[in-house]
Amino acid sequence: MTPAARWTGPAALLVLWQGLALAGGGWLLAGPSEVAGWLWSNPGLTTRAVAVTLANATCGFVLGNGAAIGLAVIAALWPRAQNLVAGLALVVFCLPLIATGPILRVLMGPGEGPQIVLAALAVYYTTLIPMLAGLRAIPSAWLDLVQSYGRGRWAELVHVRARASLPYLLAGLQISAPAAILGAMVGEFTGAERGLGVLTIRFTRDLDIPALWSMGVVAAGLSIAVYAAIGWAGRRVLPGTPPVILAPPRLIRGSPARRLADTALLAAAALTLWWAGIELLGLNPFFVKRPPDVAAAFFGSPDTRAALLDAAAKTLALAVPGYLAGLALGAGLAVLLSLRPGLAGLMVPLAVALRSIPIVTTAPLVVMLLGRGAAGTVTLVALMVFFPTFVACQQGLRQAPGPILDLFRSHASGPGRQMLHVRIPAMLPALFASARMSVPAAILAATVAEWLATGRGLGNLMALSASVSDYTMLWLAMVAVTLISAMIYGGIAWAERRVLLVMAPEQVRP
Question: Which fold has domain 29-245?
Answer without folding.
Answer: MetI-like fold (1.10.3720)
